[in-house]
Structures are given as C-alpha cells and as structure tokens.
Write a structure and sequence with these properties.
heterotrimer, A: mainly alpha, about 0% strand, B: alpha/beta, Rossmann fold, 10 strands
Chain lengths: ~240, ~230, ~200
C-alpha cells in the first residue's frame, strides 16, 4: 500500500500547494495531449516526478492495481462488438491511446502521496480555500484521516463478533446488512463523543494555522505547472 | 472557582440534575462519586459550558459559564472516558496542540504549551508518535495533556480509569497528584472510589440528581456505601 | 485573562455535531469501500462501499451528506488510503472510476434533498420508507449517470461499451440500497441521541 513516508527528497521539500498546483497542470496536459511525441513528453515528466520522490515506477503501478484493472476494461470493452467480428482492433486501439494518458497520472499521483503528509494538504486547504468552508474542510480531512483506523478496528470487531457466533453461515444479505447497521450505530456513537470533545477544546473557525512557506523551488514548480498547461493548450 | 446554584437540568420530563448547589475552590482535590445515572457526567459538563442549565446558574471564576464558553473551557479542562474518541489528530503533538491552536495563540506559545503539557504527564519528546500506537495508559496521559495545554485551573476527569490496568492507573494517579501539588484543582468523576479516597480533600456523592454526600473522605466513607458506590474495605 | 480569548470564533454547537457525524460517516465510507464479503461460488466480491454514501444522504441531508462525501474524496486526494483497493491520490479521481466518486457525492446530495427537502436534516422517523426508497433509487441513477460517461470518456470508448462494462455492478448496488433501508433504521435512534 502506498502512503506518505518521511524523506528528504526534492518532492518532500516542496510546499503542498505547489505540488497540488502541479498535479492540476499535469492533469490538463495529460488529458489534452494528442500526439505521440506529446505522450512521450508526458511520460518523461511523470517519471521525473517519481525520480524527484525517489519512488520506483513498479511500486507506483502496484499501488494503483485497482485503477489499472479498470484501465484494462477500456480496450477490452472498446473492442467488443455485438455481432461478428465480435472484437474490433481499431476500437481497442483507440481506447488504448486514451488509457495510456492515465498511466503517467498514476506516477505523479503516487509521487505526491509518497512525499506529502495528510497534514500538509490539510494546511494547504486551510490556507487556500476561503472562509468557514476551508476551515471545516481542513479540520474535517484531518479528523477523517485520524478516524479511519478507529472505524476499521470497530468494523473488524463487529465481523469477529458475527463470526464467533456462527454468523458466517448466514446469507450474504443478512451479513451485509448486519455489518452495515452495527458499524453505523458504532460510528454515530463515536461521533457523539467526538463532538463533545471538539467543543470542550474550543473548535474554532479562526485557529492558528499550520505554518507553510514557499521557497524558490516552489515558484519554479508553479512556473512549470503553468508551462505544462500552456504547452498542451497551444501545441 | 466553580459555583453552581440551584442547578436544574432536564432530560425530557425527568430532572437529571435537581437543584444542585456546590462550590469548588481552586486547588481542591474533589472526588465526585455516585452510581451510574446519578447525574455526575451531566453535572461536570455544565462546568465548561458543554451543557446549559435549564434553571439555576453555573459560575466559573465569578462569570456565567454559558455566557462565555471559551473562558469556561480554558478555565476548566475536561478529560473524557475514552481517549480514542477525543484524539483529534493522528500524532501526539498535533493532538495536544489542537486546543491552543483554536485559541489562536502564536506558534511559539503553542509549541511551549505542548512541550509543558507532555512533560507534565511524562511524555516528553514523544510528540511525533501515533496516538493509535500508544498503550491505554499512555493514551490516557496524552488525553490529560490535551486538556492541560489549555492551561486550566481546574481539571475534570470523567471515569479516567476505565480499561486501565493497575500500573497505568497508578501512573495516571501520580501525575494527578503532581498537578494538584502544582496548584491545579482535580475533580475526578467515578463510580469506583478505590485508592482515590485517601487522595481526595473532599468527596461529593450524587444520588438521583441531588447531592447526597458532601464531606471529607473519612466521614464520607460510610455514607458512600449507601449510594451503591464501591468503597475499599480498609 | 478572558480578554485574551475574545477573538476566538467558536464553531456553533450544532455545526460541531454535524461535522463530527460527517467525519465518522466519511471514515465509515472509507472502511466499507475496502471491505468485501466473500460470496461462495462467485468470483466477484460483494463490496460494502455504497452503504456509507446512502447513510450520509439519508441521515445528514443534502448539505452535510454532501460534505461527508467531500471529506471522503478530499481525504483520499490528500493521500490517505481510503479508496477501493486501498488507494489514494488524484489518479483515482481522474482515472476511469473517478466518476463514481463524483457520483457518490452528488448522490448523497440528491438523496438528502429528496428525504429532507431542506438544508437542516430532520429525523428519519418522520420520513416514510417509500420516500427513502425513492431517494435511494434516484441516488443510484445519479451514481451511474456520472460514473458511466466518465468511464467512457477516460477510456475513450462508446457509452454502450462503458455501460456494458459497468452493468455487473448495478444489481448488487440495488440490493445494497434495499438492505440500507433496514440498516439505517438502527442508526436513526443513535443519530437522534447525538444531536
């Protein structure tokens, strides 16, 4: 599984805002690229991002196996026809070209995830998204990140409790709705306790924000992002 | 100082608190005992304006708590039963910093408060550890640090020993003693007063939303047993 | 001492409650997205992903239900492994299945709007099962109405081909909606206690 790992690479040193900006610029470029040379350029930049984060392409691809499975669906279903010849290579090839644009996005995305702690993105949100929405979104992301493992333990215990009393013999519908109902109740109870704790600690719309600062390198990345957009739109 | 006067709080038609008048001085070590459902938690949640009284008043340092919740919540720190549900960040330091950040303090003040609070519970230098990787006793101590970072003059702990083994319980207790010695008032809410009676200055026992016992520990011992509160043998 | 904190702008109590419930339902959506029950004899696992989406819309209404899914998506974009298959990052969002993420968000909003007919969520005990079922039906349509064309565009295939690829996922999702109607009833009491 791919997640943030501390490090001192170029990617780690960048401000989260410049990395998010770069992902947007890169996505625009990847989706508008139409020539083979352009596609090669997008791959080169994507691999460059992996290099900047010291992450191997194999690891990046393995982390996105789920996306890759559905990427594989494209050429498969793009080639299928309802009658003879049942499979048309040109349809599959068209889709393959479309799908090929997504792979370098996986690289850039993996580099970001590998080099950026969630708290950095949270800070970027609170610094960038204006008003109360930005504050609630920032704190909400931090809290969601914190509570996923807690809920995972809860759901695991619920499944164990069901298995321990022979529940695995029951129908799929029975098990699914039982797990859903119990985990919902458990989560809502936790939400009640969390809301009291948040109030006791003065949850505010105007807290001291985590510090962020842009360096020269960040401005370079911003320029690169804008450059990517310009090149892909103009060429 | 916390003063409640004729405090009434209703759940629907039943009075969870039925006219409670109580004064808690700065620096007191108070044990708030009573069976489940006697109104202990409901009472202390008025101290820092988590609940508003239906009747009567709650004064914190002379000012109505509900009128100035920020003041009440920085004067009265609250530690809840299950640490895992009150952690708001994935790491120890970020969690302890949460309260001071909400107060809008400067970053260096926040860092100082976090360091001091962690030091008070013997968790120095462990700010980068994940809260989920800590033992139950460590989690309880970090929860206390989270409240201490607000620099409260009163610390309320609601059933703080649930799920803690004996050494962890003793460790938390010794930190509470240190905080008390440094001048913080300690208010422990519990239905189980083992090894707490000897520490407290004063014991308040609740029954059905009213004060049934208010005495020094030695005198309270006998009265508490009538409240279905477990009292140590000796 | 009190003057010091006069500038603190507390989040109102009811908002704190909705934020906390949104957080827990976003976390629940994440956990259920990665949980599949093995079905004997069938190779395709039965994922519990849509339950979180349905719960959020039904219980929290359009605004907070939508906020829940926004939290889920942004937490994943930020790098927390919350998407199906334990993934994270913008590649999920822009990839072939990203439309389903957007569809989930819109579905929560639509389900909430049909059930609550206003911004402030009301108690589900006041909403008939027929209305809830209707809301979930519309919600599923929204999920696929966004998810399938998105898949077609990203993969550069026809809408028919995309719909064919996604068709096997549709009947189980309908079954999950039916199960949701029973499961959510257990949460209504817990939710009304939290508020």
């Amino acid at each position: 599984m791919l997640s943030y790992e501390p490090g001192a690479t170029v990617a780690h040193r960048l401000d989260p805002r410049s990395k998010i900006g770069f992902q947007i610029g890169f996505a625009v470029a990847a989706f508008t690229v139409s020539t083979l040379a352009g596609l090669a350029g997008v791959y080169a930049v994507g691999l460059g991002c992996l290099l900047a984060a010291r992450l191997s392409p194999v690891r990046a691809l393995r982390a996105y196996w789920f996306v890759l499975v559905f990427l594989g669906f494209g050429p498969l279903f793009g080639g299928l026809t309802l009658g003879p010849p049942w499979f048309r290579v040109d349809g599959a090839l068209t889709s393959l070209r479309g799908v090929a644009r997504i792979v370098p996005l996986l690289f850039v995305s993996a580099a970001f995830v590998h080099s950026t702690p969630v708290r950095d993105t949270r800070a970027a949100i609170q610094h960038t998204v204006p008003g109360k929405l930005g504050q609630l979104l920032g704190i909400g992301v931090a809290l969601t990140f914190r509570f996923v493992p807690v809920v995972r333990t809860d759901v695991g215990r619920i499944r164990e409790a069901i298995s321990a009393r022979g529940g695995d013999e029951r129908t799929l519908r029975d098990r699914a709705s039982r797990i859903a109902r119990l985990s919902l109740v458990r989560s809502l109870q936790r939400a009640g306790r969390l809301s009291v704790a948040l109030r006791a600690r003065c949850l505010a719309y105007n807290p001291t924000l985590p510090a962020l600062s842009l360096s020269g390198l960040d401005y370079l990345v911003f320029a690169l992002s804008i450059g990517l957009v310009l090149v892909s739109v103009l060429v | 100082m916390i003063e409640t006067s004729e405090l009434v709080y209703r759940h629907g038609d039943t009075a969870a608190l039925d006219g409670i008048s109580l004064t808690i001085e700065d620096g007191e070590w108070l044990l708030l005992a009573g069976p489940n459902g006697s109104g202990k938690t409901t009472l202390v949640r008025h101290f820092n304006a988590l609940l508003d009284p239906d009747e009567g008043t709650v004064l914190v340092d002379g000012q109505e708590a509900a009128a100035n919740p920020v003041r009440a919540r920085t004067t009265v720190g609250m530690v809840f039963q299950t640490p895992r549900d009150q952690f708001v960040a994935a790491t120890v330091g970020a969690d302890v910093a949460f309260g001071p950040e909400n107060l809008g303090l400067a970053r260096e003040d926040i860092d100082r408060r976090v360091a001091e609070a962690l030091s008070a519970v013997n968790m120095d230098g462990r700010g980068d550890e994940r809260v989920d990787s800590l033992s139950g006793g460590e989690q309880a101590r970090v929860a206390i640090a989270g409240a201490l970072a607000m620099e409260p003059s009163h610390l309320v702990l609601d059933e703080p020993f649930t799920g803690l083994d004996w050494p962890a319980r003793q460790s938390v207790l010794s930190h509470l003693d240190d905080l008390h010695a440094a001048g913080t008032s300690i208010i422990v809410v519990t239905h189980d007063v083992r090894d707490l009676l000897s520490r407290a200055d004063r014991v308040v026992g609740l029954r059905e939303g009213g004060v049934a016992v208010d005495a020094p520990p030695e005198q309270a011992r006998e009265q508490l047993s009538t409240l279905d509160v477990r009292v140590p043998e000796c | 001492m009190s003057e010091r904190h006069e500038s603190v702008e507390l989040v109102p109590d009811t908002t704190v409650v909705y934020v906390a419930v949104s957080v827990l339902l976003a976390a629940l959506t994440a956990v259920l997205a990665q949980l599949s029950l093995p079905v004997p004899g069938i190779p395709v696992p039965f994922s519990l992903q849509p339950f979180g989406v349905f719960f959020a819309g039904l219980l929290l209404g359009p605004v907070w239900g939508g906020f829940t899914l926004l939290l889920y998506i942004v937490t994943g974009l930020a790098g927390a492994p919350v998407f199906s298959g334990g993934g994270a990052g913008v590649a999920y969002f822009l990839g072939p299945t990203g439309g389903f993420l957007v569809g989930f968000l819109l579905a929560a909003v639509v389900i909430g709007a049909v059930v609550h007919r206003g911004i402030e969520p009301r108690s589900l005990t006041a909403v008939s099962t027929v209305t809830q079922a209707l809301a979930l039906a519309v919600g599923i349509v929204v999920v696929y109405a966004v998810g399938v064309p998105w898949f077609a565009v990203v993969s550069d295939i026809s809408l028919t081909a995309a719909a064919t690829a996604m068709a096997p996922f549709f009947p189980p999702d309908v079954l999950k909606a039916v199960l949701t109607l029973g499961a959510v009833a257990g949460g209504v009491e817990a939710f009304d206690q939290v508020r």
